[in-house]
Structure formats: C-alpha cells, structure tokens
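[Help] Beginner question about ligand-bound structures

Sorry if this is basic. My supervisor gave me a protein sequence and a SMILES string for nicotinamide-adenine-dinucleotide and asked me to "get the holo structure". I don't really know what that means in practice or what format the answer should be in. Inputs are pasted below exactly as I got them.
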Amino acid sequence: MTNPEFAQDLAWVRTHMPKLQHALQDLPSLAGVRLACSVHLEIKMIPLFEGLLARGAALFLTTCNPTTVRDDTVAWLRQQGADTEAWHGMTDDEYAAALEHALAWQPTHLLEMGADLSTALHKRGGPTTVRASLEGTGSGISRWQQLPLRYPVFNYDDLPIKEGLHNRHMVGLTTWQAFFERTRLSLHGKRVLVIGFGSVGRGVADAARAFGGAVFIAERDPARALEAAYAGWHVLPLSEALPLADVVVTATGAGQVLTAAHWPLLRAGAFLLNVGHRADEIELESLRAFPHETVLPFVEAFAVDGRMIYLFAGGSMANLTAGKGDSLNSFDLTVALLAAGTGHLVSAGASAAPGIHLLPRAVWEPYLS
Ligand SMILES: NC(=O)c1ccc[n+]([C@@H]2O[C@H](COP(=O)([O-])OP(=O)(O)OC[C@H]3O[C@@H](n4cnc5c(N)ncnc54)[C@H](O)[C@@H]3O)[C@@H](O)[C@H]2O)c1
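Answer (accepted):
No worries, everyone starts somewhere. Holo just means with the ligand present. The predicted complex, written as structure tokens, is below.
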C-alpha cells in the first residue's frame, strides 16, 4: 500500500508541472521505444515517466547515483509498469550489474545523467540496439568526449535553459537549503570557499553570499579564475584558501579535487560539501582512515590530527542527497525538456550522425512559458 504522505506529495508534484504536461501531449506514440534511463530517481521524475509509459514506451530505470535513489519512487514506478533496478545505497558492484542488465534489456534509446550506460556499453563493445541518447550533465558530456561515439547523443546540459537556469540558480539555492535544514547552521559569519567557477559554482557562490557568507573562489582554469575576479570575487589558490574556510564546496565535475594532501590545511570545524555529479570530488578513503562517526543524519565528524572536520551528505551531491533538489516550478521546465528531448530522439534526431549534438532550440522552445 502506498504511504499517504508519498501519495499527497506526488499529487502536489503533478499539480505543479504544467510545462511537462504540455510537452508530453506533443509527443508522438512511443510504441516500440525501449528507453533505458540512468537518472536521479526521486519523486519529481515520476510524472515524466508516467507520461512516457502512457505514450507506449517501455522503460528500464536505474540510477546515476545510488545515494539519490528514493526507494518509494522506484516502487511506485515499478507498479506503473517500468522495469527497475535501483535502490538507495546500492554498492558499486550492484550498480555495475544494473547497468549491464539495462543494456542486456536491449534498449533502443538512452536517457542519461552522467553517461554511465553509454560508458558501460562502449566498454563492452559488440553490436548495439541503441540508436540515440539524451545526456544532461557536464560530467557526462566530458565522458562522451572521450568515447568513440556510435550513435548520436543530444546534449541538453549546455542549453541556456538548463545550464543557465538549473545549474546556475537552482543548485546553489537548494544546496544551502539542505545544509541549513540538516545542520541548523547558517552562513552568517562564515567564510565559504567554492571550488570551481562553472555555472554551478557561480550559483553556489551567489547564493552563499546572498545568505550572508563571505565567499571566495578557487578555480584551476586561469581564464575562469579571471572571470571570477572580474565579477568581484576574491580568488585564491586552493592551498591558500583552504586554511581560511569554514565551509568548502566542490563544484567542478572533476575527480579527487580534495585529497589527503589537503586535510592538514583545513580549519577546525570546517565543513566539506560536494555539489558535483559524482561522489569523487572529495577523496573519501584517506578521510575515512581518521576516526569518525555520524553525528547527525547526513553529517559525519572526522578527528583529523586533533581537529574536527565535518563531511556533509557523504561527499555526494549535497542538494539531492540531503535535500529535495530543485523547486517544482523550476524542475517542471527540466522534465519538459526531457520529454521533448525524448520525442526528438525517436523522430528527427534518429537520423543525426553519431557524435554530440546540442538539443535543437526548436525542440524545447515551445515549452518555455
Ligand atoms: N548538484 C546538482 O544538482 C548539479 C546540477 C547540475 C550540474 N551538476 C554538476 O556540477 C558539476 C559542475 O558543473 P558545471 O556545469 O559548473 O561545470 P563546468 O565544467 O562548467 O565548471 C567546472 C569548473 O571547475 C573547474 N575545476 C575543475 N577541476 C578543478 C580543480 N581541481 N580545482 C579548481 N577548479 C576546478 C573547471 O576549470 C571549471 O571552470 C558537474 O559535475 C555537473 O554535472 C550538479
């Protein structure tokens, strides 16, 4: 039986997604489409998947990040007819098996956040049934650039309505919402270091300043560092910035940004957060070698050479692991984009050449208002 709170929440989510409903109505029949999805599986995705099922698509749902899976969402979608293989906290081996099973299911199309399915598919080689993929993360696009592409991939991460809205405005807001709610701390009187000045880092920095933090930036690309300086941010090399920071946020899309070499530089009481796609921006193995315990849900304390350091949300995406992610009104546009993008994969996009293509404006523009 469905939990009444979940049912109430789902009804509320559905009510606030008019753009998605518009995009779903415009979809062609999806009969014969086998869509394998490696995406965040939480309640805001349900109306999209319900709509795709109603159009006749077969769905195989797995995650792109085991820490963001909500088991009630997966159970609900299984009841609606999707094949699912995802649960909160699945191990790396279990996740790798789920990707293999998704590929063995013989998908015709992929919906991805992070390119894990396509990376597994290209690693295993051999013939593929996949005709096209839709990718929505900067991390995924970077991985795509390393793959010998066998089908067209439509990038919606770099669209002004994804990067410029969700990445730029939503991640910062919702990261700090989650941090405040979970820790009962605010940023007043705190020095906040944001590592990485892409659209996500900018948004995190803007929101931190708006919430009272004194913010500075570490950025390894000198051109981006200069952009940050022109925007008025105090920019410092990472090794100089770390000893000053009360709260450190990684927002890079790169692995191993904070490692064992950095732990001695941290101030007592410093918080470490990650908002990048993967939980590998903060290197956890060396951190976990120090005595540690969970002191609050989503907060672990580490005794590092006599100083207490706090890790938020296990170094996984702070806003989605410890919080609820985007506002419904903003996410409505993101899922409308996913619905319209799926329509493109199975229509005009099907004849595109293998390679990375920006999702054309004509596909998403009708859903802006
Ligand atoms: N949490 C969320 O909900 C959410 C939403 C959207 C995107 N993301 C993820 O956030 C990450 C960043 O996205 P983006 O669009 O801003 O990417 P981006 O590539 O535009 O920006 C990342 C920046 O980090 C810098 N960088 C990389 N390694 C660094 C290092 N070691 N030290 C300092 N700077 C470094 C790069 O030079 C670049 O300027 C990606 O992993 C993306 O998938 C998360």
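A couple of things worth pointing out: DSSP finds 15 helices and 15 strands in the chain. The chain has two domains: 4-160+327-367, 166-321. Feel free to follow up in the thread.
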